[in-house]
UniProtKB/TrEMBL annotation, chains A, B:
Keywords, comma-separated and alphabetical: FAD, Flavoprotein, Oxidoreductase
Pfam families named among the record's database cross-references: Acyl-CoA_dh_1, Acyl-CoA_dh_C, Acyl-CoA_dh_M, Acyl-CoA_dh_N
Database matches in InterPro entries: Acyl-CoA_dh-like_C_dom, Acyl-CoA_Oxase/DH_mid-dom, Acyl-CoA_Oxase/DH_mid-dom_sf, AcylCo_DH-like_C, AcylCo_DH/oxidase_C, AcylCoA_DH/ox_N, AcylCoA_DH/ox_N_sf, AcylCoA_DH/oxidase_NM_dom_sf
Protein's name in the database: Acyl-CoA dehydrogenase
PANTHER family associated with the record: ACYL-COA DEHYDROGENASE, BROAD-SPECIFICITY LINEAR ACYL-COA DEHYDROGENASE FADE5
Entry similarity comment: Belongs to the acyl-CoA dehydrogenase family.
Organism for this UniProt entry: Verminephrobacter aporrectodeae subsp. tuberculatae
Residue ranges constituting the Acyl-CoA dehydrogenase/oxidase N-terminal domain according to the UniProt record: 36-155
Length: 602, 602
């Protein structure tokens, strides 16, 4: 089924929540105002709808295939990547110095959402390339940057992240891949990596693997891990491609979803590549033993992008469900107003499902948009104090964007399937693919539990709750505005937002008061805390949206859209924000029962 | 991975919640006491664990295959069905007069759960046969019963339910299949049916299709639908198999899950079967135009059984997750108590996920067990007043068992996958299959919305809330017992159960007070009402379990089990029952926002 980019909603968020015209005051972003945003988003919509979306179901049906170390991607993917490169989409958010367009993340995020809505299995490739670019920008030497960045930013080469090993998943301290210094300053890399997204494929001329490994004699644990660049083809000083490096793809996984994308097992230095000199050649990124530190810097970007994938797949599922609900005629109105069968979109329960999808997607999108704006401000604003505040806000929001948008994507894609009834269970219908694709999102780039650990430790406890309390104060100000506006929708939102904010603050007090004395009790509720915080922060953005929409409605702007925005926000308040007090009770009063059963008693 | 039937939990429910020794006082159930239950369950566990479970993953990997109208089931399925027949499992709950064992549903339900945990794709075949048996027992003439029942009860023939047509899913009023009376008293059946589970297969000698069709000149809508028996092979008066009937399997579906089971498109009377006389021969069941009425009688049985499937697949997912969490070593304790990596079952968030699975499964199982006991009492107790009460209780509970146990199975099988991290997304791990299999359960035999319509209309409004209020009074009595016991677990449960009961009663008042004036508002919250009621009723059974377990613990019986039961009940109270007030708010105060968006505005 076709995909239509939700341009109006995206531009509403960019204009009114992220306040792009304020961002455009920042030096370097002078050309990145609302009109630029609109033009870029419209182009990206054309590309996503016209090029990527038509390949989505096919890629699921004809997944990437491995043979003798090589991977063939689904039909059409090579051509799509060529057009992606031609359009300059890879460089959107990257520095102009390396051929990028240097646009704010506030604009780039919308484009990433579109590409992932259109074709998540495809869009993963550029997403990983973004990660490699971030890593090199963060810590790469000038020499590495000179050789690799332009090619990556153009999209002609792709990037990968080689973290996971069979014994080292969430716990990267257990990485065993070895790096052996060689006389020429490079390293020999030896070891096996698993779950490497686009670890091998036929889309680009070269693949730039970023690899975590341990130099001999390095300290145990996380402080002995270094980061290396390990290209598929060795690269000359002039950027020309040389011999094949000894990186062998030993197979790809048979997965529940994102089947178009190859998930590779890679063997470094195993002497398996025909014609390659045995021993994979790697180049140190930054300093030895600081690999995880660099990873954490870029991880915020990657985690944020996966959060966008959650929004993207939910949006796609929503559009499909709406389309089916409009077309499928079944059942008479429950109020007996007619004896004729009606489209199921007329039935209240179908409306409830669609509204749940719509409200959650819009809430998550709004939260993600504001998170991007915080990033742009933190990176580029001339005011140091504002940069610092924005950085704290951004960092607090990232685990919420990642965790909340992906966990909810499971519920929403499942609801999308439910709207289809029995047809939803038939693969040809296409609704099931979105559920299958979504299912990896709360797992990769750090499971929801890992995001929640980050939220509790780095983002809440470390600053003594300062950031979250500052956010709560802003939410309280929004409540006051809602009460002042006094419309029924605003009053309903104010009431639910207030209860939800208080629930959040209760939980923050619990976390801060308990983390030292009984950390297990805090971590028993860490994921519910994340879900609560995500719920409140997304709800807050819809509360702001409601106020804006009321104002614009009074000005006579785009009545249908503004009315829908107000209705959607009110639905969110009454059906999603209302969950907050229950979550509070579970977290604050139920920590004991989570751990009451000894492991052997399960 | 292996499956171990949760015999201890099942027998706890049967003994203490269903009170099987009281059921065994009922004439006809004299031999069906606790010892019989134990013996039957132990045998069924052996069969499920040893015969059905090992075929489960294989059946998913090698689904049923269609070729030229015939369907070949996965390897091993024919042999498993032969052993199912030999063991007499099909006849467990069916009348001794037709070769069954006449055991109470209270015992039979546990066996159905086991078979479905072990192999849902297989167990669907006997489940549909049960449906055909119920239909014939309900409305079949003596002649039809004589020809078909013994074969079906033995399991040598299987049964199917032919309801759905492309335009007639949830709305059976739209059925178009025609039945033309023939001089010999039989009917010619003409039309296409879709989504027919085990509509064609190679497991049994004959397949007995129960088919909804319209006799020419019948009234429009639901009052013009009749029920017919239409066997794959025609049957002589002596029960011998004759010629092939004109019922053609035109294909089977490519499904998200339950892939072992063929889901057929059947064409009746299309002249497609080689060697068959054109025109499918059907035999009227009961009277013309009363087909839907008969279906509704047996539908409670089928819906109840699908609820058991929800429990079954969640139990299986739970066991797999526990096993993985015990084996997978990753990460150090969050309290810093050790620098060594531990099994992930030591981590609080993994415990939270496993407890969520365990508590919900045990709550749903307890509710299903009590529902079965109500059925047995309603069908067989000599006291007419008690029969009537039990029937009302049973009928109220059926949509909850179906709706709540299957909706929660989506969350639980998804959590089971999450416990596996990245491995969960790899098909070979097996966790994904449970999620895929579960996804049909809230759809077939009536979607959750259809269950919720039933709950609102037939089960709440029709008796003016009498049944649900009577249940609430019993819950209140349980709360008093909990408060009297005064342990911390009992007090916590009493508090949450009381709040949940009040939330439920608020919603009932809303439903009763609004259904006449604004039915759309009621149906906007019908599924949340079902989820709330299921939550409370399952929680109530765990509250009763908690009280029993405390008593037995004082008596020194089975300490580990009783302590775990108490801990699990308390977890349910603090993490699941706590959702009730939020649901109440959504239903009672949020009906307007569900329908605020016009269909064209989505």
């Amino acid at each position: 089924m076709s995909y239509t980019a939700p341009l109006e909603d995206m531009l509403f968020d960019i204009e009114h929540l992220a306040r792009i015209e304020q961002l455009a005051q920042i030096p370097g972003f002078e050309d990145a105002g609302l009109e630029t945003a609109r033009a870029v988003l419209q182009e990206c919509a054309k590309f996503s709808e016209g090029v990527l979306s038509p390949l989505n179901a096919e890629g699921d049906k004809n997944p990437s295939v491995w043979k003798d170390g090589a991977v063939t991607t689904p039909p059409g993917f090579r051509d799509a990547l060529r057009r992606y490169v031609e359009g300059g989409w890879q460089g959107l958010q990257h520095p102009t110095g390396y051929g990028g367009q240097g646009l704010p993340k506030t604009i780039g995020a919308a484009c990433i959402e579109m590409c992932n809505s259109a074709n998540l299995g495809f869009a993963l490739c550029p997403l990983l390339t973004d990660g490699a670019i971030e890593a090199l920008l963060t810590a790469g030497s000038d020499a590495l940057k000179a050789i690799y960045l332009e090619k990556l930013v153009s999209g002609r080469w792709s990037g990968t992240m080689n973290l996971t090993e069979p014994q080292a998943g969430s716990d990267l301290a257990l990485v065993r891949t070895r790096a052996e210094p060689r006389p020429d300053g490079s390293y020999g890399i030896f070891g096996s990596k698993i779950f490497i997204t686009y670890g091998e494929h036929d889309l680009t001329e070269n693949i730039v693997h970023l690899v975590l490994a341990r130099v001999a004699g390095a300290p145990e644990g996380v402080k002995g891990i270094s980061l290396f660049v390990c290209p598929k083809f060795l690269v000359g000083q002039d950027g020309s491609l040389g011999a094949r490096n000894d990186v062998y793809c030993a197979g790809i996984e048979h997965k529940l979803g994102i089947r178009a994308s190859p998930t590779a097992v890679l063997q470094f230095g195993a002497g398996m590549v025909a014609g390659a000199v045995p021993g994979a050649v790697g180049y140190l990124v930054g300093q030895e033993n600081r690999g995880l530190e660099y990873m954490f810097i870029m991880m915020n970007a990657a985690r944020y992008a996966v959060g966008l994938q959650g929004i993207a797949i939910s949006e796609r599922a929503y559009q499909k469900a709406v389309q089916y609900a409009r077309e499928r005629v079944q059942g008479r109105p429950v109020d007996g107003s007619s004896q004729a069968s009606v489209a199921i979109i007329e039935h209240p329960d179908v409306q409830r499902m669609l509204m749940t999808m719509r409200a959650t997607v819009e809430g998550c999108r709004a939260m993600a948009c504001v998170t991007a704006a915080a990033f742009d401000t933190a990176q580029h604003h001339p005011d140091a104090q504002l940069r610092k505040q924005s950085q704290a806000l951004h960092e607090f929001l990232v685990p919420l964007v990642k965790g909340y948008s992906t966990e909810t994507s499971l519920e929403l894609t499942s609801l999308g399937l439910q709207v289809h009834g029995g047809m939803g269970f038939i693969e040809e219908t296409g609704a099931a693919q979105y559920l299958r694709d979504a299912r990896i999102l709360p797992i990769y780039e750090g499971t929801t539990a890992i995001q929640a650990n980050d939220l509790v430790g780095r983002k809440t406890a470390r600053d003594g709750g300062q950031t979250v309390r500052a956010i709560a104060a802003q939410i309280e100000a929004t409540e006051a505005e809602l009460l002042a506006s006094a419309t029924p929708a605003a009053r309903s939102m104010a009431r639910r937002l207030c209860a939800a904010r208080q629930a959040l603050l209760d939980v923050v007090e619990f976390v801060l008061g308990t983390i030292q004395t009984d950390p297990q009790a805090v971590f028993a509720g860490s994921v519910p805390y994340l879900m609560l915080a995500g719920n409140v922060l997304a709800g807050w953005q819809l509360a702001r949206s409601l106020l804006v929409a009321q104002d614009l409605l009074r000005q006579g702007r785009d009545e249908a859209f503004m009315r829908a925005k107000i209705a959607t926000a009110q639905f969110y308040a009454e059906h999603i924000l209302v969950k907050a007090p229950g979550l509070r009770d579970s977290i604050v009063e139920g920590a004991g029962s989570v751990r009451a059963l000894a492991p052997q008693a399960f």
